[in-house]
Amino acid sequence: MLGAPLQVDPGSIASGVNNVWVLTVTFLIFFMHAGFAMLEAGQVRSKNVANQLTKNMLTWSVGVVVYFLVGAGLSSVVGGAADPFAYVDGGSDSWIGWLFGAVFAMTAATIVSGAVAGRAKLRAYVTYTVLLSAVIYPVVVGFTWAGGFLTSIGPGFQDFAGGVIVHGMGGIAGLTAAWILGPRMDRYNDDGSVNVIPGHSVTFAVLGTLILCFGWYGFNVGTAASVFVVENGALALGAFADTVGRVALTTTLGMAAGAIGAGTVSLIKTDKVDTLYVANGMLAGLVGITSNTNAITWVGALVVGLIAGGQLPVVFEFVERKLKIDDVCAVFPVHGSAGVLGALLFPFFAIPGYEVSFVAQAIGVGVIALWTVSATAFVFGVLKLLGQARVSTEHEREGLDIAEHGVDTYPEFGRPEVSEGSAVRTDGAGGLRADGAGDLPNTGEIKMITAVVRPDRLSDVKTALAQVGAPSLTVTNVSGRGSQPAKTGQWRGEEYTVDLHQKVKVECVVADVPADEVVEAIREAADTGEPGDGKIFVIPVEDAVQVRTGVRGTEAV
């Protein structure tokens, strides 16, 4: 006898598939934090990298808890929900929905860290993150996605995936915070002219950009959250039927056009295609398309992307040179102005039949900008009045990695690199004996050999010194110039001259080790055959004193 046919509830299938889809894209959006961390770390000085990475991790860790406890509920309150905190005990579907909203909120929060890099106190940034997650961003969501008053102006303010609600808001907040904090030290001269402060790694910046671009598909495509719906008791495609394909296409075209637009304007302005502008242009193109990606023509996606990327060098220069605001990671031209332009251009390139009003878009942008500027200026203004907004001049010059975290992200010198079998001498007890207490080949004098060499030759020099029996040395980071010619660098479209080259100074004091042998060992190890290999100086030392024992002369060496 045949068994009864298997009964499948279409609603259960739809719910399960939709939840898997939402969680997948949520995890993809979370991965964007790795992109933000790398992008921002690449654009700051090496002495501030750990600080930037820490801020990104704390943005998520602190912000997501605050958003769960306060922010998500407040957005529903502003939007007029009857039970705004229902998600807390709402079950699986509610928790998945909350998490999907949380990754958008944390994206808005982390944007601000790039604008205030290099001089904001960690406690100030974390304080702002708490308030942004609890109040500032939730109010924007309440005005819009949660059903607030901006949805009732004409056809309503339209922002599909957060071009203004998330990115525009974050970019405007970053610009405001940077304005309140003031520029990094040495960023501007007394006459108002600009000093370029290049970031430490274009590699990090570009890799971070590509990770962000990858995650952005979750950001835009993922907003089409319903794979299946149930119609007349049967499964049917939901948003996937006509939205997902358009979103994927326009997101891709906007991203590509943004890079082309920024690279082209950079070429016109500087005669060079600036790598960082191309990277930032990809992101600006994505931001520009994010609010309209569901209902814009493919031609419109190209135009919006080109404009969003093309405005980047122009707006960055205006902010830097006219407003005198030090926006370290260009968060306003990438996220702020690009997001605003995308929202305002939406009505001109919407697909036929889609209702969107320029007036409603302009009012929405204005309200969000006014609220964001006011709230951000208030928070950072109060912190500044309390003396808690900015690190001290000493800490800023030293670097926030050490001052705020006690971390040296790039230890210039690791453990000693001495090759096997090198001629390191020991005393009678088996301990290391640096020099002295032996024959005195240097006419009985103490000699100091000072060598200025390329940093990449340091390991070879240390090994060579150990092999001639002179392992004791002092190494210092220095910069200087000699026969090595100056070179021109470019950072985000601006040229700067490098005529002081990074070197290391190696100092070695010897008594019973022949100075000539030390000199030759250093010379051979440091030689690359190119100008700029350095110099070696031999100087007589009048006396030496060992601190621990008080022994003087050659025995002290």
Write a structural description.
A hairpin with a 2-residue loop joins strand 5 and strand 6 (494-498). Helix 9 (275-290) crosses helix 11. This protein is an alpha+beta fold and 557 residues long. Helix content is 54%, strand content 9%. The chain contains 16 helices and 8 strands.
Regarding quaternary structure, what we see is: single chain
How much β-strand is present in the residues?
5-15%
Strand count: 8
* Spatial sequence of strands, sheet with the most strands: 4-7-3-8
Overall shape: it is elongated
Summed over residues and divided by their number, the pLDDT gives a mean of: 89
Distance between the termini: 100 Å
> Element order, helices and strands?
HHHHHHHEEHHHHHHHEHEEEEHE
Radius of gyration from CA coordinates: 30 Å
Task: Let me know the largest β-sheet.
Answer: 4 strands, antiparallel
Low-confidence stretches: 413-425
